[in-house]
Here is the input.
Amino acid sequence: MIREISPPPVKRRRIHHEAVQAEPVAPAPPAPPPPAFEASSTTCMRVFSWNINGISPFLQQPITNYFSKPKSNASIDDNRTPAPASLRAFLHRHSWPAVLFLQEVKISSQDFKTQDAVRSASNENLSSEESAAAKGPAYKAYFTLPQDPHNARGLRGNGKVYGVCSIIRSDILTRFETKVRTVDRDKEGRVSVVELIGASSKFAIFNIYAVNGTENPYRSSKGAILGTRHDRKLAFHRLLMEECIKLEKEGWHTLLMGDMNVAPDARDGYPTLRMFPHQHALNRADFNARFLGGTANDVEARFDGIDVWRKIHGDQRGYTYYPRGRPWGSSCDRVDYAIVGRKSWDEGYVKDAGILDNEYERGPSDHVPIWIDIYLEPNSK
Here is the structure.
């Protein structure tokens, strides 16, 4: 089976005259690193998300090779040089975030050796000469990997496709009553949910690698064709929305992070937003209606969500998918973002959010990382 692609193809089709869009606006200059963050903060938690397009580059060399001179998050001075492919260096460079979500790790569910290697890479000390404080905290990695033999086989049928990994700092696991789970409806390794229950609030934080719509077939557990990947994408939207609504009714604060595989509107695609084939426009309208207050006649229920980066940064241009093999900024989309429930936003649980849109932070991937700061108690600014 030919494997679907994750982001939109880099070759853009001419937009049909009915699909009128605003004049293209070039990407903004590379974003600065996120503001300094205190890893031991008791009131706020920083969460990163990154579609890494395969874990292999992060594990090919001994992990200690990358740590001789790690760059701080304030000294990235060469936007053209990729960051070292090291999970530990990333965590160190960004002040030991509470959570790092990875998508498209491309690990077989039976490949326990690689899973152990990821755990080691997340916890390797910077060097034997570093102080205990500089070595940083421990992390634990949780995997949600493909279990579907018909829809997630990969190019060689080995299951090394899709997959998400949630890397959580050790003190978060002891401070909160914590549960990391997947969902019954997902057998492709696309959804991991981190549930954190504190003294006065509880969070359900989703690590998402959403379905990309294509004309490829989607099959049942017995291999029968049920429709296309476009059909599966619409079902994925609906099922995710229903769970979010259910969780909020039960008193959870919901945060969705990851690669949504859809750019919300014309501000989120350069030089143009993808509108062809027409089903992609329908998929976008369905996603926006279910999660972001958009309109679609056939959407029967809606989750009242906030696109956090867009809410904070207004009409600013920022992108997360930069295809390799193309000049930086010549074709890009914002398909990775964070969505919170309106109640969480209105009650002051969100502090800030950003995109690390520069070539250095893209590293070996074709996506750049995103981040969000959330308060652990309401109005704790």
About this structure: Residues 229-249 form the longest helix (21 residues).
